[in-house]
Design a protein that fits this description.
mainly alpha, single chain
């Protein structure tokens, strides 16, 4: 606890941190609302479902708790890790904003209906609706891609790397079991997210360097 407090105190002398933090928060919330309206657009433009080689061969399971509450717990873990070392916050916010913004663009391009036999997941809070959408925002899977993004960001910590990679596979498997995503949504998420991570390192270079400021 004392070490965490000392990290916050030491940031008083880093005025650039506050600028990074404010811009990170701004970009994050802008991306959330951009995503919200992108979801509204896809909800009124989707067409028909298509066949899927994996989903056609596995029964649909109720994974609503994993999809909503489980993912919220995962996000809570990321928040705790950032609060523990505040130098992490700006880059995580900006990389997450770029992830959400990129995905919002993707979901507006192709308008497929949810897969056959998809389970009904009801988002109860405004925040869950921003993250989970209406069920028509399919490509690519945020539940797969976001944990993988965190794995790439925290790659130097082998324990967090393994945890986040396992979470990515776990949530990816869950959305397939619930027929909440097509298989292409899940498998493509790894490749697209890797590109987003490298874009974030390029666009937010100083934030990425500051991420490692406090050991």
């Amino acid at each position: 606890m004392n070490k965490t407090f000392e990290r916050y105190v030491s940031l008083k002398s880093h005025k650039v941190f506050y600028l990074q933090l404010v811009t990170g928060i701004f970009l994050f919330f802008i991306s959330l609302f951009f995503n919200y309206f992108a979801q509204k657009y896809t909800a009124i433009h989707y067409s028909n479902y298509v066949s899927d080689i994996i989903l056609d061969n596995i029964p649909s399971k109720n994974v609503g708790v994993i999809f909503l509450e489980g993912f919220m717990i995962f996000i809570g873990l990321v928040v705790i890790l950032c609060l523990h070392k505040p130098s992490r916050i700006p880059f995580v916010l900006k990389a997450s904003a770029l992830f959400i913004f990129t995905r919002a663009i993707f979901i507006t391009l192709t308008h497929l209906a949810p897969p056959l036999h998809t389970i009904n997941v009801n988002s109860v809070s405004f925040f869950e609706k921003l993250l989970s959408g209406s069920g028509d925002d399919l490509f690519f899977s945020g539940h797969t891609g976001f944990p993988f993004l965190m794995a790439l960001i925290f790659w130097n910590n082998k324990y967090l790397r393994v945890l986040f990679l396992a979470a990515s596979v776990f949530f990816g498997g869950a959305v397939l079991l619930g027929h909440l995503h097509y298989s292409i949504d899940v498998f493509s998420a790894f490749f697209i997210t890797y590109g987003i991570f490298n874009m974030a390192k390029y666009f937010f270079k100083k934030d990425y360097e500051f991420f490692f400021h406090h050991k």
